[in-house]
């Protein structure tokens, strides 16, 4: 059994990490922003709370430089899985994304270095956003790998909300690697980052409403609500994906089970997807919703032509982790089933 600190425990990816950690018999301290969210987690795992294997801690604002100073003092922590960071385009000022992402990441690393001497590894949830270069997303001669970095600069964050989001993930991840490489910071732990693209999959955590769904899954809510009935929208230039349960498994393998993962960026993806394929899977598996879903005649949403999309190679990650990725059909079906529980 390993004692793990999991930040952002009510988040989309973290909720699956928590479920898998507890199923494997590990002890977890998880942070959330409010007592309301903490209560929902405790209600889901009463036996783990009673045994002391699940403890919740309130960190109301991860953008505060001292946000994690107290929780990292929990005795005998061995691994930190840092998932807490915003992924949404609903902001008026890019600082609303940049500050929580960058300060939240550096503050937990600083707190661990200062007050958690038993921690041997920190895994940070990064993103394909920190890998992709917007100038090459439609370039078939360009291959993105674990070694690729988004070249975005601070001057570009006002270009578009998606640019600001990608910048937040890039700056946060760079800050993390810079921190552990600087001897002056006294890090006695190593670092791993997990860099998924679009993350689909079932929702297991409490949701106030379908309007608060994670950004990647929003498209399936739109499909179920009839918004794709007349035309299936383009998925945009980033047409690779992964199931949330596989992302969770990657965090656990990297953090707790594979020593050789230390110092690595892990580019986890199951491959290509299109919104048209999502629609076809929904139509095939949920005929009772035929009146809301796109028909076979509905146009749009197909994969960009091969000469209009980037290439990718995540073979290093796959060799290291040995994950058998879930299929797109399994992921979409399980996602829609979970969304229906919330009234989709």
UniProtKB/TrEMBL annotation:
A single MF term (Gene Ontology): oxidoreductase activity, acting on the CH-OH group of donors, NAD or NADP as acceptor
Protein's name in the database: NAD-dependent epimerase/dehydratase domain-containing protein
Keywords from the named record: Oxidoreductase
Keyword Aminoacyl-tRNA synthetase: no
Family that this chain belongs to: Belongs to the NAD(P)-dependent epimerase/dehydratase family. Dihydroflavonol-4-reductase subfamily.
Pfam families xrefs: Epimerase (PF01370)
SUPFAM superfamilies named in the record: NAD(P)-binding Rossmann-fold domains
Domain NAD-dependent epimerase/dehydratase: 4-255
The keyword Flavoprotein is assigned to this record: no
């Amino acid at each position: 059994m390993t004692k793990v600190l999991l930040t952002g425990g009510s988040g989309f990816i973290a909720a699956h990490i928590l479920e898998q950690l507890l199923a494997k018999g590990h002890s977890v301290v998880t942070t959330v922003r409010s007592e309301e969210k903490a209560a929902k987690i405790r209600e889901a795992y009463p036996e783990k709370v009673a045994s002391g294997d699940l403890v919740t801690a309130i960190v109301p604002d991860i953008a505060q430089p001292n946000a994690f100073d107290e929780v990292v003092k929990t005795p005998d922590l061995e691994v930190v899985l840092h998932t807490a960071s915003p992924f949404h385009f609903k902001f008026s000022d890019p600082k609303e994304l940049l500050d929580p992402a960058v300060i939240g990441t550096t503050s937990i690393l600083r707190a661990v270095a200062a007050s958690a001497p038993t921690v041997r590894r920190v895994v940070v949830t990064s993103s394909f956003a920190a890998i992709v270069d917007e100038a090459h997303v439609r370039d078939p001669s360009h291959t993105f790998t674990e070694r690729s970095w988004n070249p975005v600069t601070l001057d570009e964050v006002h270009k578009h909300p998606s640019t600001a989001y990608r910048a937040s993930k890039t700056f946060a991840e760079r800050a993390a690697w810079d921190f552990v490489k600087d001897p002056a910071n006294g890090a006695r732990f190593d670092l791993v980052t997990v860099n998924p693209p679009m993350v689909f999959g079932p929702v297991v955590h409490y949701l106030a409403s379908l309007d608060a769904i994670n950004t990647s899954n929003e498209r399936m809510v739109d499909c179920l609500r009839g918004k794709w009935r007349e035309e299936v929208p383009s998925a945009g230039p980033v047409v690779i994906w992964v199931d949330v349960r596989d992302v969770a498994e990657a965090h656990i393998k990297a953090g707790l089970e594979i020593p050789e993962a230390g110092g690595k960026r892990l580019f986890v993806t199951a491959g290509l997807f299109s919104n048209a394929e999502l629609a076809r899977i929904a139509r095939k598996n949920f005929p009772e919703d035929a009146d809301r879903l796109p028909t076979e005649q509905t146009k749009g949403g197909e994969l960009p032509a091969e000469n209009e999309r980037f290439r990718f190679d995540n073979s290093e990650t796959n060799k290291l982790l040995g994950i058998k990725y879930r299929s797109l059909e399994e992921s979409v079906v399980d996602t829609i089933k979970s969304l229906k529980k919330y009234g989709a």
